[in-house]
Write a structure and sequence with these properties.
The protein is α/β, with parallel strands linked by helices. The chain is about 50% helix and about 10% strand. It has helices spanning about 1-30, 55-70, 100, 130-140, 200-210, 215-230, 235-265, 290-295, 300-310, 320-345, 395-410, 425-430, 435-440, 450-465, 465-485, 485-495, 510-520, 525-535, 540-555, 555-580, 585-620, 640-650; strands at about 90-95, 170, 175-180, 180-185, 350-360, 365-375, 380-390, 415-420, 445. The model is unreliable at about 30-55, about 65-115 and about 190-195 (pLDDT under 50).
């Protein structure tokens, strides 16, 4: 028994000697004076107790001192919290195990990651890490998902999972300390280079790891580097300062470029000129984009300095070319469309409207508009999402383009609840039209024809069916052409009239109410202009036109016609405005049409007599003499021949 106790004491003494020797070598290692280095992760010139029970206390005190020192700095920058988490299979990952973050001697080669920002997920790290990547990791700190409940962690093959209990540890003095170096990876286990997913023995593994020399050294380096970052005492702070200034310069420059592009686009102004020049002293027209930036440079020092560097050929990339303009326009338009699509997806159901037209370059373009109800405000919204050049206007081709455009924007055709376009055969054909093809795919995509287009077609056919109506509007157009043929004549009516004479349009009936209104409310002034024009004209043809127009205007028939058509067109225009409103619905459209039908029926009974009374009152106020009654037309009597009389007597 004595021999066994003696051997036990001997082994204990040997272990104490070994531990004492190891602790002495560690303290010698930490007391070395740091020399010139090439990185921010060199050995810190500090002393810390690396014993198991005191390591955490020392680091906590070190953090408290560092926090007090940081708070005295006026330029303290706090990093934003990172709260992103993907609900996938996660694996515990100990970041202090990665010497790649802390040890420069192990990793001197830098690489560029494919991702623009450094991910805090260790499963996405690519080694070796660069200095800037190590800087980002230390600055943001570990990503700990403390808000996750234990039952929400995924189970492994043994039906075990991680617990938030492991985020804390109990020291020998019964104090509880948070393990801020512990965090998770949201990638699968086989994708992680290092880490631990042995949930059964996790407590033992963590305790053994915290006692290791590797963990202690890494913790010291981590805390020291974090302090240097927050105090701005890194050895490359001058380089970082220059980089930040350069980033700020280009950020402000692109902000100005985007604002200029937004201004020109919102005002529908052209960007480029015929002779573009970036020289500030060049007085030629360089286009709206360049000239507007030159104007802003007179009041913006940074922009003026940018132009000077370009003119002195000290700046290779100036980002003012037409390629950059087009790229920024595409990016801005893409962002606008993305915001529109997000709104549509939030409400789920939508309708689309489209129309095809040929531009000045003879290219057939199809415009697409998305219509939906904003559930948060209850308002109807319509958003234009772009022009699409089409090679063919057949129903099949247009349907394929629509389906492709909706799919490319992430919209499901099955969520479509409405489609609207004009009444062309290729659009509403019962067999091969766009309407039929869409309904075959989604029967719930209710088709609503373009009411305004149908309304205009009805009015055109109604007017063409009456010779008197065609004659009246032809005469209105003749008055406009009389003055528009010459700039001198147009200047004459500009000085005399407040309302400009309008030309007629076959499809836009709003122009007809404007043309009738200009003549009705300026009747005497227009006749005065024609009389002045008669005295100035030496051309016989134009003089004849003036006489014919005066003769027609100074008739009771014309006065009555202009009053009748003004009343009708005023009601027609109101319906067109209602149907074109964004807030219109089916009930409003039907009610407005029924009200117009009732009004026109009533106008047939009493409206014409009312217009005659108003016309006579109008003539009495006029300074020109006009008859107050319709002219009685003499019926021409034809001489009957002998054969005709014989047949009538039979």
């Amino acid at each position: 028994m004595g021999i066994w106790c003696a051997s036990k004491r001997k082994r204990k003494a040997e272990m104490m000697q070994v531990n004492q020797a190891m602790s002495t070598s560690m303290m010698k290692f930490l007391n070395k004076t740091s020399t010139s280095t090439t990185t921010d992760l060199d050995e810190p010139n500090i002393k810390m107790d690396l014993n198991e029970g005191n390591l955490s206390n020392n680091i906590s005190k070190y953090n408290e001192e560092m926090t007090k020192e940081v708070e005295t700095k006026s330029d303290l920058e706090t990093s934003p919290p990172i709260n992103t988490f993907e609900n996938k299979e996660i694996t515990l990952y100990v970041n202090s195990n990665i010497n790649n973050i802390c040890d420069l001697e192990m990793h001197k080669q830098e690489i560029v990651l494919s991702e623009p920002l450094m991910s805090l997920d260790p499963g996405k790290w690519v080694f070796p890490l660069s200095g800037s990547q190590r800087h980002d990791l230390v600055q943001h700190g570990p990503q700990q998902m403390l808000e996750i409940c234990d039952e929400n962690y995924p189970l492994d093959n043994n039906k075990r999972h991680f617990s938030n209990f492991h985020y804390t540890r109990k020291l020998s003095n019964r104090e509880t300390q948070h393990r801020r170096w512990l965090f998770f990876s949201n990638l699968q286990t086989q994708m992680i280079r290092e880490g631990c997913c042995d949930w059964k023995h996790l407590s033992t593994i963590l305790q053994r790891h915290e006692k290791s020399q590797e963990h202690m050294v890494c913790m010291i380096k981590w805390v020291e580097f974090d302090k240097r970052i927050k105090l701005g005492k890194k050895i490359d702070r001058e380089n970082e300062k220059r980089i930040c200034e350069s980033q700020k310069h280009w950020y402000n420059l692109f902000k100005k470029l985007i604002n200029v592009i937004n201004f020109l686009a919102s005002h529908n102004l052209s960007f480029r000129g015929h002779r573009e020049s970036i020289k500030l002293d060049d007085s030629n027209n360089s286009g709206n984009f360049i000239d507007l930036l030159k104007l802003l440079s007179k009041y913006d020092h940074s922009l003026q300095n940018h132009f000077q560097l370009i003119n002195e050929k000290k700046l290779a990339q100036h980002y003012l070319s037409h390629d950059i303009q087009n790229e920024l326009i595409k990016l801005m338009s893409k962002k606008v469309i993305e915001e529109i699509i997000i709104k549509v997806k939030l409400v789920k159901y939508y309708a689309f409207m489209l129309d095809c037209t040929r531009d000045i370059s003879r290219v057939e373009q199809m415009s697409i508009i998305l219509r939906f109800c904003n559930t948060s405000t209850g308002d109807i919204e319509e958003h234009f999402i772009g022009f699409i050049a089409v090679d063919s206007t057949t129903g099949e081709h247009l349907t394929n383009i629509i389906l492709h455009e909706l799919k490319s924007n992430g919209l499901d055709i099955q969520d479509c609840r409405g489609q609207g376009f004009d009444n062309g055969a290729n659009m509403v054909g019962i067999n091969k039209g766009v309407k039929t093809r869409i309904l075959n795919i989604n029967p719930k995509a209710f088709f609503a024809p373009c009411g305004c287009h149908s309304w205009n077609l009805i009015l055109v056919d109604a007017v063409k069916s009456s010779i008197t109506a065609k004659t009246f509007f032809g005469f209105i157009q003749k008055i406009y052409l009389l003055f528009s043929k010459s700039s001198k004549r147009w200047d004459l009516i500009k000085d005399k009239l407040k309302l400009t004479l309008k030309s007629l349009s076959e499809t836009r009936w709003e122009s007809r109410i404007a043309a009738v209104k200009a003549i009705l409310f300026q009747f005497d002034d227009i006749i005065d202009c024609i009389n002045i024009l008669k005295m100035q004209i030496v051309d016989a043809e134009t003089l004849c036109d003036c006489e014919a127009i005066l003769k027609e205007m100074l008739t009771f028939e014309f006065i009555v016609a202009i009053h009748v058509w003004y009343e009708i067109l005023l009601r027609v225009n109101n319906i067109s405005k209602i149907w074109q409103s964004v807030q219109v619905n089916l009930k409003m459209a039907v009610d407005s049409l029924n009200n117009f039908c009732n009004w026109i029926q009533e106008y047939r009974d009493i409206g014409f007599n009312k217009s005659i009374i108003e016309s006579r009152q109008f003539i009495e106020k006029s300074s020109y003499e006009i008859e107050l009654n319709f002219k009685n037309k003499r019926i021409a009597k034809k001489k009957k021949c002998l054969v005709m009389n014989t047949l009538m007597n039979l």
